Amino acid sequence: MQLLNDDYYMQQALKEAQHAYDSDEVxxxxxxxxNNKIIAKAHNQVELLNDSTAHAEILAxxxxxxxxxxxxxxxxxxxxxxxPCIMCCGAIYWGKIGxxxxxxxxxxxxxxxxxxxxxxxxPKAELVSGVLENECAFLxxxxxxxxx
Length: 148
Prior knowledge:
It is globular and about 40 Å long. By secondary structure, it is α/β, with parallel strands linked by helices. β4 (99-104), α5 (111-115) and β5 (126-129) form a beta-alpha-beta unit. It is 45% helix and 20% strand.
């Protein structure tokens, strides 16, 4: 059942990434889902907030924690358009996020570049990669192409 929804929720994360793109931010979007309901969504706001930690994942998780009054989300799925960086992996780990789904790989700044064979998420977490990968990658490539 959950796998049938991955494309839908990644589309919602892509909408957030488009908001980032339109605001001249690196176009990454994230949504947090529990019980088939979006409980938080965010996009990169590094430039707006002048804060290098204002990644979509961090902002979405902070919103989810605040709205639910909790610091752990083991029943949640985090959808993010780009492979999380190592900083975001730390936040995902400490929040005990149960499932992480990302779209495009990030060879330059993604967690796999630094962790190699080490699992950076909570031991019970499930990882799914490549959901709407082409759409997620296209938005990122378009953004950086416009900067050159």
